[in-house]
Amino acid sequence: MTFTVSTIRTRLVNRLKDIADVTDSVLLQMATDLNQFLYNRMFETDPERFVLLQSYTVTTSPSTQALPAGYRDNTEYGYGFFFQNSDGTASSRQLGLTGYGSIELGYYITGTNVVFTGINSTTNFVLRYVPVLADLTLVSQSFVVPDENKELVQEGMVLYYYRYNEDPREYEQDAKFMRLLTLFIDGLPKAPKVYALPSPLSTGFGGVFNDLPSF
User: What is the mean pLDDT of the chain?
Assistant: First the structure.
């Protein structure tokens, strides 16, 4: 993606003629707000687009390890902690949730850490998770949407500019932006409408799963 904040400034000048009242700081604030809004809407429809991976090795229980910097959550379908096969390849077997003090096979989240429970031999996992979207802090940084959606970002920034200036054209611009947003979202791949159930590797809270799976 090459559609940067600097590019949008040029397009805003072409669209509005004069945005001299918008400093780089204000522009980046508006761009960050719009970028976060678009990220959230895209994530609702196509979360797989944003998935990141983090590897973990666990040898004892309980084992407390840091979550990745920028971790948001892993509650979407297809996200979470997955066992790795002995040859290092991915497995579809997923680690279930437990809780504080549990001796059952699983994990729980506390603050910025994950605590693995019920694991007493070396086991490798991969965490598939949703990251927090970082703020735009440089005009050379890009928006989260694909480059071909310049008009959507441009009209979104026009809307934020009108809001910044308390311009009555905001309401008409909002309707225009929402029409473009609907077309954009409708064109994204759709995530399956399913819900994650407790892992078959875990018997749930209060139970004990004594054996790790073999791969």
Answer: 85
